[in-house]
Amino acid sequence: MLLNVRNLTVKYGSFIAVNSLSFSVNSEVYCLLGPNGAGKSSTLKAIMNMVPFEGEIEILGISNKDKIVKNYVGYVPEQPALYEYMTPAEIISFVSSLRGIKDLNRINALIRAFSLDMFMNTPIASLSMGNKQKVSILLSLIHEPKLLILDEPFNALDVLSVKVLKELIQNHIKNGGGVLFSTHIMEVAEKICTRIGIMNRGIMVMETSSDNIREAGRSLEDVFLSVTGLDEEIKDILKGLE
Ligand SMILES: Nc1ncnc2c1ncn2[C@@H]1O[C@H](COP(=O)(O)OP(=O)(O)OP(=O)(O)O)[C@@H](O)[C@H]1O
């Protein structure tokens, strides 16, 4: 098992953002869906040991509180957290040396795939949101982690980069890795995920697979709206707009 989450609870003061959540990720693409505020980012931050949590989280069988797991995980936060005064070339070289990576051929291929070559010497502060996101994705891949934790990774990406990222995710799985990501984009989830966890108000309300949804002849959007109870809300809102 690449990731095992058992009875995860995340609290901010007395507010429970994630409530006794359990799920696991193998060599597969696991997608977390949920309305705004459902607790997706808090779950991913707890997995990265960035927020206090209760419960148990293991990465490749090792507690996520053990520093060694950082070697096995790549993380893309919801908002790129980069040194704005550095250029992509500088930050990539900085992170590569921290990680002890000398062969940059793979990274250079990724830079080209994401069309970042012409921005390598531009300060990050001057980059578009999409290009910052691409740098953030590149940094998460430098040490060839087994598990990728991606918080809304498709945000701000153009069509070509979405395609590149989908391909990277598929290749990662073919090589025995695992991917856990959150998204609001149903089409992406439907196409590339093997398993889907739908969260609402901190609770996992449904775990299913794209195959199950297809076999049931339903769209992921319908399933999502119905299990989160948003379908009734939408009917009311649309009525109000008539
Ligand atoms: N640092 C914090 N302090 C207090 N409350 C927080 C904090 N971070 C998140 N929350 C609250 O916890 C809940 C879950 O937030 P979280 O960001 O995990 O949701 P999400 O599913 O990722 O939402 P979105 O889709 O909008 O990104 C929300 O109600 C949010 O306001």
From TrEMBL:
Keywords: ATP-binding, Nucleotide-binding, Transport. Residues 3-226 form the ABC transporter domain. GO terms for molecular function: ATP binding; ATP hydrolysis activity. PROSITE patterns: ABC_TRANSPORTER_2 (PS50893). It comes from the Archaea. SMART domains: AAA. InterPro entries: AAA+_ATPase, ABC_transporter-like_ATP-bd, ABC_Transporter_VariousFunc. The keyword Ion transport does not apply. PANTHER family: ABC TRANSPORTER ATP-BINDING PROTEIN ALBC-RELATED. This is ABC transporter domain-containing protein.
